[in-house]
Design brief:
The chain has about 500 residues and is mainly α. Among the domains are: about 240 residues, no CATH class; about 100 residues, Alpha-Beta Plaits (2-Layer Sandwich). It contains 24 helices and 10 strands. The longest helix has 30 residues. The protein is elongated.
Length: about 500
């Protein structure tokens, strides 16, 4: 098997491995996840860059593989994009299905990813982190988490239900025997449902459909991770020979999937080491290896473009940060337990969706504008949809950048997400003088955070003793189970607000 065969094998193995880790990012009856489910972001240089620019210390223990990838790229070249990246592999498959046209290099287009990287880096340096919105690994995981995985689970459940209800000879028995294994290892603990599933899917589909414009359109022109790795690979020791175009052929200008070779020569920063050119070269002149230092066609970034990109990133930060604190303008903005202060949280979170994927109580949902204009796809606790399981610490285990701290269970049980507040216009004991005990029954704290005060009330000309619920502020941690389980239809009669959350800096608002 030639080098191209090994590359394709590597792509398929890595894609299968990442999909397996994705499925393993699930509660399977254990409080500790047994596999390195966050590996994809441990090797992500953009996640490391976001962590580096965020306040606080760099998370060396979890992100050192990303730095190792950068060092390997400096020596070997941009191999990650061609051999490992799951989005790149998906785009290659999409390109084959869509029959992407061969096209000559468009140097002006591929500058865009470098300008985008500079803009995002400058914005992060000044306090607004948007790297996660354009990170290809985050895009891949978000699309799986919010759109594809829920659809897969729904389809699988429907299929198993069909063969259970309709007893098809031979087939139903085989499917029913397969179901326990499939349920315990290849499906979600609870059927997942996310608010931005369709929007996330549309973004992913658009990226795939760009293959109709040219092969690897995203990688060539828009990917900031590709730009970062391209910069690191400018002087890589592993290189292509010959560097220049052959005068009698020039097939490389149209056949290269990354358009890495043009009249100016071979651009090492654009080459993903796919080795395709060793196969389609009619004279078999092309080879790869470690050789002497050779010139490489670089990206001719205009000084004006660089300055404009940096200025845009620098100006973006104050325009966003001068607004009122999001927790102040939105009292229902709830973050997962262990989340750091909101300002730091928005700088650390790379919008990967891992915490939402693993949430047992289905409480975490992706934000649209609830957390402000830069909070898109960050995790929110939506208590009417689900609740924070009292004995669960999984979200802190999978967060790759420390936006959600991994808390010991005893500490997590004391972490205050918010405070529950009754709506007396809807709560049955207050509004209708009807007894309801649901919120108190489900409250998980050691000493109940919801207690009852007995009152004598007049109901239809009859004096009755009615239990009136009350929240004990010092005991409530804002887990949201009372809001989730409230039996009223529509809005709950008890809502969790972010008052008193543990993560907030006490001097953040005067």
């Amino acid at each position: 098997m030639g080098t191209r065969g090994w590359r394709r094998t590597s792509q398929l193995i890595c894609l299968a491995g990442f999909l397996w880790l994705f499925v393993a990012t699930e509660y399977r009856g254990l409080d500790e996840l047994p596999y390195p489910v966050g590996l994809l972001f441990r090797i992500d240089p953009l996640a490391a860059l976001a962590d580096l620019f965020a306040p606080g210390p760099f998370h060396w223990a979890s992100l050192w593989p990303a730095l190792l990838l950068v060092v390997l790229t400096i020596f070997l070249g941009r191999f990650f994009c061609g051999w490992i990246c799951p989005l790149g592999t998906t785009l290659d498959g999409s390109s084959a299905l869509l029959k992407s046209p061969r096209s000559k290099p468009r140097p002006g287009w591929r500058k865009a990813k470098y300008y985008l990287l500079l803009t995002l880096a400058a914005a992060s340096l000044f306090g607004v982190q948007l790297l996660g919105l354009f990170d290809p690994l985050a895009i891949f995981l978000r699309s799986l988490t919010f759109a594809l995985y829920p659809a897969y689970n729904s389809g699988a459940n429907g299929l198993f239900d069909f063969f259970y209800v309709h007893q098809v000879p031979v087939v139903s028995d085989a499917v029913n025997r397969l179901y326990p294994f499939w349920r315990d290892h290849l499906m979600a603990f609870h059927p997942p449902a996310f608010q931005l599933g369709l929007f996330t899917l549309l973004v992913f589909v658009v990226i795939l459909l760009l293959e109709k414009v040219e092969r690897r359109f995203w990688c060539r022109n828009l990917c900031p991770l590709g730009a970062l790795l391209g910069i690191c690979s400018r002087h890589a020791l592993y290189r292509r020979e010959p560097v220049e175009l052959c005068g009698d052929c020039k097939l490389c200008t149209s056949a290269c999937r990354m358009a890495a070779t043009d009249e100016a020569g071979h651009a090492r920063s654009e080459c993903i080491l796919c080795h395709d050119c060793t196969g389609y070269c009619p004279s078999e002149r092309v080879s790869f290896g470690f050789g002497k230092k050779a010139p490489s066609a670089g990206v001719d970034l205009q000084r004006r473009g660089v300055v404009t990109s940096l200025a845009c990133g620098a100006l973006l930060a104050p325009s966003v940060m001068t607004g009122p604190p999001t927790w102040r303008s939105n009292q229902y903005l709830l973050r997962p337990p262990g989340a750091v202060d909101e300002e730091e949280f928005l700088q650390r979170c790379v919008r990967c969706g891992e915490c939402m994927k693993v949430c047992i109580g289905l409480a975490l949902q992706p934000a649209l504008l609830q957390a402000g204009p830069v909070g898109l796809w960050t995790p929110l606790l939506v208590a009417r949809h689900g609740y924070c399981e009292y004995n669960c610490t999984l979200c802190g285990q999978v967060c790759p950048t420390g936006a959600i701290r991994h808390l010991p269970l005893e500490q997590k049980k004391k972490e205050v997400i918010g405070i529950a507040v009754f709506d007396k216009d809807r709560c049955l004991p207050f509004a209708r003088r009807e007894e309801c005990l649901v919120c108190e029954e489900h409250c998980p704290t050691g000493e109940k955070a919801i207690v009852f005060d007995e009152q004598q009330v007049l109901v239809k000309s009859e004096v009755r003793t009615l239990k009136i619920p009350r929240v004990v502020k010092d005991r409530c941690i804002g887990c949201g189970i009372c809001e989730t389980k409230c039996p009223l239809e529509g809005a709950s009669a008890i809502r969790v607000t972010n008052e008193g959350e543990s993560r907030r800096k006490r001097d953040a608002w005067v």
